[in-house]
């Protein structure tokens, strides 16, 4: 109550406590997340103080230490902003849910389940890596942790069936990063996104579902085409885990993730949904001795949940300092105006500049804190240029997530490369190629929100899904130089690349062009096969 009365006029003790709090936040962030976000926060604090000496485009009158500390510590626009509120409430419960599910053996179950489903197919181990990493990534919310968790198992297996170390590392990095865009959990940042957009989390995951599905389809198809190109078959039946025994042993562990989807979709708050999911996890674990949450396992899970949550909370607190500077100085409006001015009102150019900004900010920064910063600095520019808010926020979210795959600071790819014993730069470039769909789709849904299931109908949704899947197959074929069952040359790859863009863009004209392009490829492939059969008969 006294703090409210003193708003705007802090006493010495308030300033002292505020200064100590800021130092402790930065030190805690340094310990759990490293230097990058700390350095960014310090640069922003210097900007708040030395505003008059900045370049004219971003200069401001400057603020005293008293005003800066007051704004960061005693208002809801600094450390104690939306990010810290969300991360310290329902994000924590989701992190705890993930830790408890892992303690039951859920991680190994998802990996075994993925391998049992896909292992015998062409390129099966890589497809299993895509599926298992996606399943784990949506819960862990960290592409780095996901690479370590699933990559230590999937990467050696991919190498053993014939994939190169570079490609094996790239597949794991691309799939692990994609887990953060996959509903229903989408990591921790998505909860903050729902809060900032003022919509329910259930509605957000519905909008985000189709692009995430298309992304994983794209990675999976590229993996399949690469296997066809190299002649890589699946793993023998004897070496794979058996599906029925896996389901008997751990099938009940599917209940908690299914429950959390159900609760979120029917409109429960994230806190309530995650609480019930935790209760169901505990009950489900008791169904078998191997998965039972004993007191020892519970303590380990609680410790891991708290440790994992600590990095998120610390990063969000540091991000709150950055956001506080943005709101105090008006940098957000200036940055948005700068993007609008540089793009000269051209939306495509504005989207491109926004993408570059997201990737630069995302170098080495955790996704949750990065999203908070981008949502404050960059998203308003897109909204001003006519992009609907949810598309604008998902646009920056995608490029913030996939900054972890973008050289020169592709941390997920470098981590996967170290496990695969491959060249880091080559792995990063291969991962970037595999994740190309994630660099295309944000432009599509920013220009045409139908891909987010906005202003559309059931019929249109099925049509968009059908044409987009064809577009994904075309994109994979153009990148890999292999389409369905045969190698293709450069002209065919160009035709497929153009067709893929046309099919992913929801429009009758573009769909027609895309169908025509694929039709040409099929005709050329049929002619080639007929010629080969004729030559064999002659011989």
Which spans have pLDDT < 50 for at least 5 consecutive residues?
Answer: none
Helix coverage percent of residues? over 70%
- The number of helical segments is 27
The overall pLDDT average reads 83
Taken in chain order, the helices and strands follow as HHHHHHHHHHHHHHHHHHHHHHHHHEEHH
**How many E-type strands?**
2
Form type: globular
Q: Give the CA-CA distance, first to last residue.
A: 94 Å
Helix/strand-derived category reads: mainly alpha
Spatial ordering of strands, largest sheet = 1-2
Q: Biggest β-sheet: count, sense, barrel?
A: 2 strands, antiparallel
Rg computed from alpha carbons, rounded to a whole number of angstroms:
25 Å
Strand content: under 5%
Description:
The protein has 539 residues and is mainly alpha-helical. Helix content is 74%, strand content 1%. It is built from 27 helices and 2 strands. It has a two-stranded antiparallel ribbon with strand order 1-2. A hairpin with a 2-residue loop joins strand 1 and strand 2 (486-487). Helix 6 (90-103) packs antiparallel against helix 16 (295-329) and helix 16 (295-329) runs parallel beside helix 19. The longest helix is centred in the middle third of the chain and has 35 residues, at 295-329. The radius of gyration is 25 Å and the shape is globular. The mean pLDDT is 83.
């Amino acid at each position: 109550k006294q703090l409210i009365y003193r708003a705007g006029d802090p006493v010495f003790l308030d300033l002292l406590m505020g200064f100590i709090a800021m130092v402790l936040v930065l030190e805690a962030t340094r310990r759990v997340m490293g230097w990058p976000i700390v350095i960014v926060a310090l640069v922003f604090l210097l900007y708040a103080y030395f505003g008059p000496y900045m370049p004219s485009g971003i200069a401001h009158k400057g603020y005293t230490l008293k005003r800066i500390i007051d704004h960061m510590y005693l208002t809801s626009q600094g450390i104690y902003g939306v990010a810290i509120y969300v991360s310290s409430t329902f994000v924590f419960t989701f992190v705890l849910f993930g830790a408890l599910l892992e303690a039951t053996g859920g991680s190994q179950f998802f990996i075994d389940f993925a391998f049992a489903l896909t292992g015998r197919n062409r390129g099966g181990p890589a497809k299993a890596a895509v599926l298992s990493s996606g399943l784990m990534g949506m819960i862990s919310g960290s592409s780095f942790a996901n690479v370590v968790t699933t990559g230590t198992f999937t990467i050696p297996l991919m190498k053993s069936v014939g994939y190169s170390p570079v490609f094996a590392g790239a597949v794991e990095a691309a799939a692990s990063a994609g887990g953060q865009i996959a509903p229903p959990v989408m990591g921790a940042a998505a909860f903050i996104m729902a809060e900032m957009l003022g919509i329910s989390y259930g509605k957000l995951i519905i909008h985000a579902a189709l692009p995430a599905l298309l992304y994983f389809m794209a990675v999976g198809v590229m993996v399949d085409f690469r296997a066809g190109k190299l002649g890589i078959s699946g793993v023998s039946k004897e070496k794979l885990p058996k599906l029925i025994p896996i389901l008997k042993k751990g099938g009940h562990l599917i209940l908690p993730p299914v429950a959390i989807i159900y609760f979120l979709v029917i409109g429960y708050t994230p806190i309530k949904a995650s609480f019930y999911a935790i209760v169901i996890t505990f009950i489900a674990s008791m169904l078998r001795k191997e998965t039972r949450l004993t007191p020892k396992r519970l303590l380990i899970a609680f410790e891991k949940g708290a440790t994992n949550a600590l990095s998120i909370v610390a990063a969000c607190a540091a991000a709150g300092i950055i956001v506080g500077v943005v709101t105090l100085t008006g940098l957000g409006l200036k940055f948005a105006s700068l993007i609008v001015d540089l793009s000269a009102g051209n939306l495509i150019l504005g989207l491109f500049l926004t993408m570059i900004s997201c990737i630069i900010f995302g170098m080495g920064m955790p996704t949750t804190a990065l999203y908070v910063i981008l949502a404050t600095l960059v998203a308003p520019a897109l909204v001003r240029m006519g992009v609907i808010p949810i598309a604008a926020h998902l646009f920056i979210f995608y490029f913030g997530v996939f900054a972890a795959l973008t050289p020169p600071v592709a941390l997920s790819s470098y981590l996967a490369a170290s496990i695969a014993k491959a060249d880091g730069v080559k792995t990063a470039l291969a991962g970037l190629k595999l994740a190309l769909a994630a660099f295309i789709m944000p432009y599509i849904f920013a220009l045409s929100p139908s891909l987010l299931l906005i202003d559309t109908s059931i019929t249109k949704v099925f049509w968009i899904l059908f044409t987009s899947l064809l577009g994904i197959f075309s994109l994979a074929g153009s990148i890999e130089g292999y389409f369905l069952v045969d190698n293709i040359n450069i002209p065919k790859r160009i035709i497929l690349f153009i067709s893929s863009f046309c099919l992913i863009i929801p429009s009758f004209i573009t769909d027609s062009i895309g169908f025509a392009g694929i039709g040409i490829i099929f005709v050329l492939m049929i002619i080639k096969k007929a010629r080969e059969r004729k030559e064999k008969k002659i011989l």
